[in-house]
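Incident review: delayed structure delivery

Summary: a single-chain prediction request sat in the queue longer than the usual turnaround. Root cause was a stuck worker, restarted by the on-call engineer. No data loss occurred. The affected request and its eventual output are reproduced below so the record is complete for anyone auditing the incident later.

Affected input:
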Amino acid sequence: MSEASDDYPVDTVAHAWLVKMRGENPEAHRGEFDAWLSASPDHKAAYERITKKLAASAILKSSPRHGTAQTEQRRGRRPAARRWLSAGAVIAAAAVVFLAFGAGGAPLSGPLGDGALTARAAEPLVTRRGEIRSFRFADGSTAVLDTDSRLEVSFAQATRHLRLAKGRVRLSVTNNEQPLRVEAGGGVVTAEDAAFDIGFEENGALSVTVLRGEADIRFGGAPETGNPRAQVLPSGRSVTYGPGGKEQLPAASPTQQGSREWPSGWADYRSVRLDQLIAEANRYAVKPIIVDDARTAGLEASGRFRISQPERVAERLGQLFDLETVKRTDGIHLRQR
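Output delivered after worker restart:
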């Protein structure tokens, strides 16, 4: 069974999404569901697998020979149309954590029911090292926050304003009378009905990648000022800005090289130096991977890695390159045998 997160198998998360998308108001979850489905081929395969299992179960249940319809009629009971929505599936929906934010800081219940997390609009969204978490705002927009990140929220009736203090976030913005504005690194990204990644590189540069729609990026002032350093970034484009909003050449960093699947914890590399790959994995590590020699650091790898699980990355690199893997108190050491 493939895995979807550190805690939940991909089939469990797929089952949870099936529950949500066949429940009440599925369109309210459409953006986040589409983002999850497209984040990895494993997600789509798992969702199709669970859907087929459900269809097969429904066929069997309605079978005149093997089904339960006649038994239920004999017992005078109405068929339980939603019996397949097991308690376990509903609980599994918590694998994707949603927080609802109300205007003016009013607390709202999350869409998972009375036991869901709640928060106020003035509260920041924060992830610890190793965490990747998803959030939903009251307007239907969503945010997937990468490890060790902080996103400050200020939603009111006439404004949708965010500030990325550190880390990286994927935003899926719903169409609204007011565009969503994100401040980060001296710049302002404005978008409507769009999806984009925005985050900081290790050197402090700001990276923006538009996945859907387009985004307006400005430095040194609000959009109304007509700042000449404004840029409209269309879907499929990425750009990196240095200090003062000066555009840089694409960084040869794991964050830029890796796939767009980071919300799922995975990354694909055609060719990446081990020291770069390890630097990206260490963003999620409590105990880092440590390369003990320059020869190992200069090796190049390709393939698909579970980047959010550094210990697994170290084990796989050890197998691929026949490296010695030694766990110590300061971290996991990789070195030539």
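Verification: The chain has three domains: 10-92, 97-248, 254-336.
Action items: add queue-age alerting; document worker restart procedure.
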